[in-house]
User: Fold this.
Amino acid sequence: MTEHRALPSEQLREFLIGRGVAVVGDLRVELISGGKSNLTFSVRDDESHWVVRRPPTSGLTPSAHDMNREWAVTSALQPTDVPVAPTVAIDSDGALLGAPFTVVEFVDGPVIRTSDDLNALSDNDVERNLDGLVETLARLHAVDYTAVGLGEFGRPEGFAARQVKLWARQWGHVKTRELDDVDRLVTALAKRIPSTAEATIVHGDYRVDNTIVDADDPGVIRAVVDWELSTLGDPLTDAALMCVYRRPGFDRVVGFSAAWTSDRYPSADEIAQRYTVRTGRDLGDWDFYLALANLKLGVIAEGITHRALSGAASDGAERAAEATAEFISAGLAQLSGSNTTSGR
Assistant:
């Protein structure tokens, strides 16, 4: 057996067998590269291939690593046309590892994560990939969440206001220094909460590298992954976050040249337009949603550095917070009307 300190293979083997999963031979555990939050592992036996997800071992941020939430939404989406990995098992109370974890079937296909990954694609492939991303997000936002058993998954009413408060609280947990502009942005957002909003399932972290694409056609999304921030809420928060992730500062958050920040993809404004055309959804107070997304990304960047300083695996993560001020400033500019674009 191969081991990783965060996922003991013999204990995992006993867990799977106890849940009625056929295990043939020893387990081989490998930490999958990528991701600055939950840990993702490839697990194989002699016949099967699974993926195990668990929270990081240190520096946890409240509400940011919810494996039970991820399990609930991916299980509910199994019969829909939203592509997700087939679910296998969950340790919901963390009895085995001291933290909840999920097991799903491995979905084969590339992840377009880095600029090098994107360079392997033709311009037509990139165009098709974007169409697939927008189409998949539109499908998610069209799911009847009550019909799939997620009627109690979240509280859509007042979602945007709670998001502002949530990310303000998260900042208090993860900040590595004082940054007055965060309070200014939170205050400005709180004064501009949209009076009405739709309610759908939201992913909460949607971008190209949180999907697995078909090896032969990057326009086909085979699975959407990383659902731990999902809930019921305003779909425009997903659309805006997808656009704001296009900002060049995101490269500093992840520590490499990201595919999603490349100018080979259309501008964030064009992506937003494609979303509206596909869904027929008005963008409402789009500046509010973009500013909220910038707040979220600024706090996420700070949280990555916070976890690194708390002893979590680093891989350059201690520098992610260098991007925080850029996102916060962009959010303030969005609300003041001085920012004419949402990203690239």
About this structure: Residues 188 and 335 are 8 Å apart (CA to CA). The chain has a mean pLDDT of 92. The two ends are 46 Å apart (CA to CA).
